[in-house]
């Protein structure tokens, strides 16, 4: 097993309120598997990714555990078991980010320094990670042509910038890849190419955590799907059964909203994370809501009193 | 309306060519002429005092018979050098202050910016006069006076740019990968600041030249015997009353020409750096 998240909870203190960004999230991810974390914007998906990498701002409080290589022993070559939540920043910076976890960020072009070429980025990253691979070889692995590497970030197209970001994430050969909305702003062919790329990474034996609101993209690569709503995981299922028989009313609503299906949006809006309703957060929008829903349902594959 | 005029007035290539040519001629003259000059710029010749422009003396002679053209070029040399050094010194000081304020933030930032406000609240010229008065007249005194009164502009520019860079994802990425503050400054801040620093310096040079000439004109800047454009205008104003217009007009033009050319050049650089116009240039 590569990653075991156990009761992960993230709160943000803001003046006069507390943001319940992630509540009691638990899941497991194994080598050679892809878990897609899906849900509407603002449901806590990206916060989860940032919590795993220790990138949350100072006003965040994180509780729970996120074990990297939970079964590893001290002698394993990939590194010992590490709780990402309690690990010191120095350990995360020197041993985890880029080495044991690779992040494919949202808006990749913004993560490149405008004054240096793609090649300079790759060369520096490889050097810092102590790798002997050449930038050209690394670029080739990410589907970039050598001549693309001499461009500056503003000369890269969205798809090329995406591939540079992929190459950077792969530079340290990390066994766990977190892709945080990697398809934002890309058109369909590029989304498909990105998903093919993630599928290849998974087939190489890496664990892939894909964070997206694009269900069609998730369907192409995911082995498992976790649906988040208002900071909680409301359904955790094998991808095949999820896309054919979603169980949670919210998951059903999301799939029905796809243009290729009923094209019927979920009515209403997600609740504000500072003022969550008591019990099931989805009940104000839920067609099945009953007084029973005032009690928080437990997650047992699906968190709903009615399925 | 203003935007339309600015766009219409921007003819790529033409204005900078004129400005660059003017600058090139003047800089070349300032560099080369003193090396090859046949006359001594300080040579007093009372027989040919106060001569109007002629073939032998194209800019005329001053009230003690020195050649105004030759002295103007020597003066230009001094003014340009003082202007350049003062501009570089003030941008370096301001850049350091802005970098520290923007990088450290918090209390340090607030304190430094209040110091900047304090310096800005003093009238430039008056404060400059106060500073040169503490030294014997010399180029160093003028450089110090201009730098002390003008570093604040660069400090503000650099600080605001650093603040915006600090929030950019590539800086977050560098920090999350374990980069130290020094490394972020060296690898990310300085390269991204370079065009701003260059522009600030170029814009500062004409300003510094004006201040040097103003201080010299008031008799406080450079030593009176030194041929500087400000000193020459100061000397020339006495003969102006007698109708000898040339001994102050030509040095005056030599202040205007390079500073206007530099301003035009800086404006052009700024236009090109503006992405809205840059895209037009590409199309």
Question: Which features characterize this protein?
Answer:
heterodimer, A: 307 residues, alpha/beta, Rossmann fold, 6-stranded mixed β-sheet, 4-stranded antiparallel β-sheet, 22% strand, globular, B: 283 residues, mainly alpha, MetI-like fold, 11 helices, 75% helix, disordered N terminus, disordered C terminus
Give the SSE map.
The complex is a heterodimer of chains A (307) and B (283).
Chain A: E1 3-14, E2 17-29, E3 34-38, H1 45-52, E4 60-68, E5 82-83, H2 89-96, E6 101-104, H3 118-128, H4 135-141, H5 158-170, E7 176-180, H6 188-203, E8 207-212, H7 215-221, E9 224-229, E10 232-238, H8 239-244, H9 249-256
Parallel strand pairs in A: 3-8, 3-9, 6-7, 7-8
Antiparallel strand pairs in A: 1-2, 1-4, 4-5, 9-10
Chain B: H1 2-9, H2 14-36, H3 68-104, H4 106-120, H5 124-132, H6 139-166, H7 169-176, H8 181-217, H9 229-240, H10 246-273, H11 275-282
Helix pairs in contact in B: 2-3, 2-10, 3-4, 3-6, 3-8, 3-9, 3-10, 4-6, 5-6, 6-8, 8-9, 8-10, 9-10
Question: How does this model look, in words?
Answer:
The complex is a heterodimer of chains A (307) and B (283). Chain A has nine helices and ten strands. Chain A is α/β, with parallel strands linked by helices and 307 residues long. Chain A has a domain at 3-87 and 206-294: Rossmann fold (3-Layer(aba) Sandwich). Chain A has a six-stranded mixed β-sheet, with helices on both faces. In chain A, strands 2-1-4-5 form a four-stranded antiparallel β-sheet, covered by helices on one side. In chain A, helix 3 (118-128) packs across helix 4 (135-141). The mean pLDDT of chain A is 91. By secondary structure, chain B is mainly alpha-helical. Chain B has one domain: MetI-like fold. Chain B is built from eleven helices and no strands. Chain B has helices spanning 2-9, 14-36, 68-104, 106-120, 124-132, 139-166, 169-176, 181-217, 229-240, 246-273, 275-282. In chain B, helix 3 runs antiparallel to helix 4 (106-120), helix 3 (68-104) packs antiparallel against helix 8 and helix 3 packs parallel to helix 10. The radius of gyration of chain B is 22 Å and the shape is elongated. The two termini of chain B are 23 Å apart. The relative contact order of chain B is 0.15. Residues 1-11 and 278-283 of chain B have low confidence and may be disordered. The A-B interface holds A 53-55, 90, 92-94, 97-98, 105, 107, 110-116, 128 and B 168-170, 172-173, 176-178, 187-188, 191-192, 194.
